[in-house]
Amino acid sequence: MSGEPFDKRDGWIWYDGALVPWQDAKLHVLSHGLHYASCVFEGERAYGGEIFKSTAHSERLRYSAELLDFTIPYSIQEIDAAKRLTLEKNGLVNAYVRPVAWRGSEMMGVSAQSNQIHLAIGVWEWPSYFDPAQRLKGLRLDLAEFRRPDPATIPCKAKAAGLYMICTISKHKAERRGYADALMLDYRGLVAECTGANIFFVRDGVIHTPTPDCFLDGITRRTVIELARRHGIEVVERQIRPEELSDFSECFISGTAAEVTPVGEIADWRFAPTGITHQLMDAYSQEVQPKKAAA
Ligand SMILES: Cc1ncc(COP(=O)(O)O)c(C=O)c1O
What is the CB < 6 Å shell around ligand 1? Predict the structure, then answer.
């Protein structure tokens, strides 16, 4: 996505408890979050004025911070309320919501025991994560060189800024090679996820998706599994080897930003994302709409 740089836009950002003009929402270059990646964030979407699964995202944000050994000084309810307020103040109903928490500047070594914890929330319009034309045809995915690391080496359940370093490198390389994104294997060589979304496959009417034992168990992923089962579609969570990709007929990815997006190819493997993929795209679009209170 190009357009106006993010620091030059207008609007309001919630910053440490107050709404501040967008361009005043700054931090010092000597911030621990910037140098040592002590920073966690969320990606959420509001539909029709309501953030889909807001509380689940706020819970994950606080949990990610705990995994990085810091506590966000706001409760789940306060974070939910701050996100709503930021949307309202910016006059947005359909929007992407980005809370971010980080360690400040009090100490600037590896140890940062007494650093202040900051929280900011930005919201903006972000209609489609992938080019709509590519989305319609089914994305083309490269195979990434970097692998999702062993959970013994990273806090793999945290949505932590540092864990995205290999995602950005992998996505850049894929884009340079003409692909929309990249599939990442894990440290064992098993199929894991994309650089910002989980992955699903279909074979003989059954959905197969990797067990999230070393990567994010996405909120969208869990929603898609629930929707599939509600539609009577069997979902198997298991280890998937890359050689098995030739056996699958459909492939799609899921994530808050990506929503449910069909995949047409991964390296030399081809898919025809049709029946189940389209069924779940529709089901997800309906599910995210605010539920009208019964009259
Ligand atoms: C690496 C990665 N995996 C999976 C997901 C999907 O998570 P969710 O559905 O909670 O947005 C995301 C997006 O946040 C992600 O960045």
Answer: 43, 167, 193, 196-198, 215-216, 218-221, 254-256
Which residues, at least 6 apart from 140, have a Cβ–Cβ distance to it below 8 Å?
134, 178, 179, 180, 264, 265
Report how far residue 75's alpha carbon sits from residue 71's, in angstroms, rounded to the nearest whole number. Answer: 10
Please, which residues have CB within 8 angstroms of residue 132's CB and are 6 or more apart in sequence? none
The CATH code of the domain that includes 67 is 3.30.470.10
Ligand 1 pocket, mutate which of 59, 159, 186 (most atoms under 8 A from CB) = 159
Domain enclosing residue 64, as ranges = 6-124
- Ligand 1 center–CA 187 separation, angstroms: 19
Shared-domain flag, residues 99 and 156:
no
Let me know if 292 is a catalytic residue.
no
- Ligand 1 midpoint to CA 43 (Å): 8
Residues of the chain with pLDDT under 50: 1, 295
The protein residue with its alpha carbon nearest to ligand 1, atom 4, reads: 197
For 98-138, write each residue's pLDDT tens digit: 999 999 999 999 999 999 999 999 999 988 888 888 887 89
Q: Given this model, what pLDDT does residue 293 score? A: 61
Q: What is the mean pLDDT of the chain?
A: 96
Determine, yes or no, domain membership for 164: yes
Given the residues 159, 171, 173, 292, select the one marked as catalytic: 159
Residue 157 forms part of a structural domain:
yes
Q: Which among 90, 124, 158 is the end of a domain?
A: 124
Residue 101 burial by CB count (10 A; 0-12/13-18/19+): exposed, middle or buried?
A: buried
